[in-house]
Amino acid sequence: MSKLDAAALAQLYTEARTRNGWKPEPIPEAVLHELYDLVKFGPTAANTTPARFIFVQSDDAKARLAPLTSGSNGPKILKAPVTVIVGYDLDFPETLGKLFPNAPDAKNWFGDPVAKETGALRNSSLQGGYFILAARALGLDTGPMSGFDNAAVDAEFFAGTNIKSNFIVSIGYGNDEGLFPRNPRLDFAEAAKII
Question: Could you tell me where the DSSP H helices lie in the chain?
């Protein structure tokens, strides 16, 4: 592998911003499929890939999601072309026969419900991070949010399943509406050490 050039790194990290405002430009369904087809290749423990994604695109679906959020998140969802609910499936062990065939007993590794939920949350969070970077790689802006009522979102969008919501992220082509100055980040010495 070779290092990405400065423009690619800027698009993914250094110049990318969390967006609060959106241009009215729709996202074609083919782009949503392309986005998922990138995300699915991000690594997870034992290839569990527990994340499940609901692409909230229709006006009706946005109207169902927006009231379940807090603060200014509802209006942002109504304006965004698409908001994605990133969930995690507690039934993910059922897919391991397909996803991790080199270990036929992998399903049995997740018998403890606490360990299963911890693994599902951790690995779906990884997949959510991959989702943000994949969206940026495709030229989309993102606006991740955690201000919402998880239980209400689960009841509204995941009823009858064993899927729980992790976080939500609006995607589209951002504008500078409500764009805050870039916040500081911790320096290496404040957040890391080499031992």
Answer: 6-9, 29-39, 59-65, 73-79, 96-99, 113-137, 150-157, 188-191
- What domains appear along the chain, each with residue ranges and CATH number? 18-174 (3.40.109.10)
Alpha-carbon torsion angle 160, 163, 168, 169, nearest 10: -110
pTM: 0.96
| Contacts of 81 by beta carbon, 8 Å cutoff, 6+ apart | 22, 24, 25, 26, 27, 57, 171, 172, 173
pLDDT band at residue 112 under the 50/70/90 scheme: very high
Q: Are 21 and 177 within 8 A, CB to CB? A: yes
Q: Note whether 48 and 171 are within 8 A (CB).
A: no
* Single-letter residue type at 47: N
pLDDT digits (tens, 9 = 90+) for 32-88: 999 999 999 999 999 999 999 999 999 999 999 999 999 999 999 999 999 999 999
